[in-house]
Amino acid sequence: MFKSLLSNDFLLELQKQLSMINKLCNEKTRSLKKAPEGYLRVMQQGKNKIPRFYHVLEKYSNGVYLNKKHLADVKKLAQKEYDETLLTSLRTIQKLMHPLVKAVEKTHLDEISNKIPSLRKRMITPFRPDKKTFTEDWLSKDYTRKTFLDGDFEYFANCGLRVRSKSEAFIADTLDQLKIPFRYECPHTINGITIYPDFTCLNIRTGEEIVWEHFGMLDRDSYAEKTVRKMYYYLNDGYVLGRNLIISLETGKQPLSPIQAKQIAKEYLL
Question: Packing angle between helix 258-269 and helix 166-177, nearest 10 degrees?
Fold first, then answer.
């Protein structure tokens, strides 16, 4: 949600792209200073259209023939032509992007409503809620968790949430410590089938909802089959690993650690 329409992420991406373009312009400018003079002429002769390469210089307007021994020179001249064309295009983009970045840096659409006097502010509807309001609304929505059955193991995270495994407790506490909003086992309906993702998280920075599934008994055949089936549901519904779906895995011999849980959360949810 917040990625669209002049968000901070949009500005950061513009700045990142402009920085990459500036860097590439500098690289190609330096390489062209070292490039040979003149340019490459390519001619194809005979029935078989065999290419012949010529190094065209000011004093050799027809070009000096380059045989196989001079293949390195052919490549340098071809690269020079490519670099010149690329640099021209990059500089065009550079000229367009500089004022755009400056304009976006000065534009804060989400702050417009905050500058309006309070009485008037009550009468308007901003084009999108601010992040604080959006997050509070997201957390306030009611949902029915998956039921715990008699005999189910009892694990409690430090944040007070009852979960189904020690690793889920690590994840819940990690999300709580990093102040990442989440819902535990909030039902999702996919093609008429209700599934209960372990954690449905909100990336406050982007406003995107991201599912985090922890698969904790992959050394058991029956559990592995259920895992594959669940992943099938997600992928068929348009979820993309690393974008709106993240997973963590473990076996009895290779458990998830709190450090790993924190690494995953920081990578995808902040």
Answer: 50
**CB neighbour class for 223 (10 Å; exposed up to 12, middle 13-18, buried from 19):** middle
Which parts of the chain are beta strand (E)?
Answer: 39-45, 50-57, 60-66, 155-156, 162-163, 182-184, 188-190, 193-195, 199-203, 208-215, 245-249
Neighbours of 169 (CB within 10 A): 20
In CATH terms, is domain 131-269 a member of 3.10.310?
Answer: no
Task: Indicate whether this model's pTM tops 0.70.
Answer: no
Domain ranges in the chain are: 8-111, 131-269
| Residue 125: burial class (beta carbons within 10 Å; 0-12, 13-18, 19+) | exposed
| Residues 6 or more apart in contact with residue 186 via CB below 8 angstroms | 143, 145, 196, 197, 200
Distance of alpha carbon 248 from alpha carbon 270, whole angstroms: 17
The bridge status of strand 162-163 relative to strand 155-156 is antiparallel
3-state DSSP call for residue 223?
helix
pLDDT of residue 114: 78
For residues 56, 61, 67, 68, the Cα torsion angle rounded to the nearest 10 degrees is: 10
Give the angle 175-178-183 at the CA atoms, nearest 5°.
30
Report, as ranges of residue numbers, the positions in the chain whose pLDDT lies below 50: none
Tens digits of per-residue pLDDT, 196-209?
999 999 998 888 99
Q: What is the pLDDT of residue 70?
A: 95
